[in-house]
Design a protein that fits this description.
Layout lengths: L2 H26 L3 H44 L6 H21 L3 H11 L4 H8 L3 H15 L4 H9 L4
Helix pairs in contact: 1-2, 4-6, 5-6
């Protein structure tokens, strides 16, 4: 069960239990202070649940937008200039060989490609369905294996001589 699912389940349990407790307390003549405390707990749990559900919806929309943008980019016609096509193929080959030399794992290779395409760590985590912390750790491992200090050095390693 994912962390979000567990949190939502726990909040639903709090909401149901608080609602049942308030109903029971009303029948037993509980003090207004106790009812106010229970009402506050119910309100906070409901608000937190709504905020989490809204955040998850926004995240899902962002994933769909990013996926759509990547699909659109893949559908763009390739340049017809043979020299440019050859340069793209050679760069792709160079990247694959260098990733192999650096000993990148398959996940690191995928993250490396997305970094070079200019995606943010958050965007990569959304696309891959992985925690942003995991992507940050993978990016750090990539930079360390490549012997560079960060994203700019990583990108420059591949394109510096072309500029």
């Amino acid at each position: 069960m994912s962390r979000d699912s567990l949190t939502i389940t726990l909040l639903l349990l709090v909401i149901v239990a608080s609602g049942a407790d308030i109903t029971s307390d009303l029948g037993q003549g509980a003090s207004p202070l106790h009812l106010a405390q229970e009402g506050l707990l119910l309100t906070l749990a409901t608000a937190l649940l709504g905020w989490i559900l809204l955040s998850l919806r926004r995240q899902q929309q962002q994933i769909q937008r990013l996926t759509r943008e990547l699909d659109e980019a893949r559908q763009l016609p390739l340049p017809q200039d043979e020299m440019l096509l050859d340069a793209r193929h050679r760069l792709a080959d160079l990247m694959a060989k260098q990733f192999q030399i650096w000993g990148l794992s398959q996940s690191e290779k995928e993250v490396g490609q997305l970094l070079l395409k200019g995606l943010s760590l958050k965007e990569i985590s959304l696309l891959r369905g992985t925690a942003e912390k995991t992507i940050r750790q993978q990016a750090s491992a990539i930079y360390k294996k490549a012997g560079v200090s960060g994203r700019h050095g990583f990108a420059a390693w591949f394109i510096e001589d072309f500029l």
